[in-house]
C-alpha cells in the first residue's frame, strides 16, 4: 500500500485473527545523522509502525512532519493507542541529543489531528528486555526481525543490482571466457541471437 509520497513501503505484516499485530516497515531518504546534524553521505532510514487495529494515517502525517523538522533520524518504531504516542529510539542516541528528540516528538504528539497524544519514549535497549505480549513485546519482535536504523545508501542496495551483473546479462560462463582470453572484454561482445531473444527489439536501435 502507498502511504506517502516520500515513504517507501518496504514490508507489510498482516494482522492476526484477533486483528492485532499488523505493522509496516518503511524506508526514507534521511539527510540527518542521529545527532540531528547533516550527513555528508546519502543515507536511508528504515523504521516500523505498529498499527492498533486499522491503519491510522495520522501517524504517517506525524512522520512526515518529523522528517521536515529533522527529528525522525533516531526513531526506530512507533505505536499509537489510548491517547499515547510511543516512540522507540536508537540506543546510539547521545544523552544531550535526547532533549531535542523529547521536545520535538512531544510537540508532534500534541499536534495530531483531532486529538492530543501524550508521547512516551523507550530506548531500544529497554525493548530487548521486555517480556509478555503487550505492544512493547511485539515491537521487540519487529526489532529482531528487521534491520532498522540509518545506513549509507550504496550501489549494492540498488533494487536491480543483481539483475544487471555480467553473469546475468552475458551468461554464467562469461568469467570463463574472460580467463581464456584476458585481452578480451566479454562485456564488449556483440549481442548474440540469444540476446535478441532475451531482449527483443532492445538492440535494433544500436546496430
Would you report the number of β strands? Answer: 7
Strand content is 25-35%
Write down the overall geometry. Answer: globular
Q: What profile does the largest beta sheet have? A: 7 strands, mixed
Give the rounded overall mean pLDDT: 84
Given helix and strand content, the structural type is: alpha/beta
Radius of gyration: 23 Å
Helix content: 25-40%
End-to-end separation = 42 Å
User: In total, how many domains does the architecture comprise?
Assistant: 2
Low-pLDDT sequence parts: none
| Oligomerization category of the chains in this entry | single chain
Q: Enumerate how many helices there are, as a single number.
A: 7
Helix-strand sequence: EEEHEEHEHHEHHH
Explain what you see.
The chain is of the alpha/beta class. The chain folds into two domains: 8-154, no CATH class; 162-199, no CATH class. It is 30% helix and 25% strand. The protein contains seven helices and seven strands, in the order E-E-E-H-E-E-H-E-H-H-E-H-H-H. Strands 1, 2, 3, 4, 5, 6 and 7 form a seven-stranded mixed β-sheet that branches. Helix 1 (58-69) links the parallel strand 3 (38-50) and strand 4 (75-81). Helix 1 packs across helix 2 (95-110).
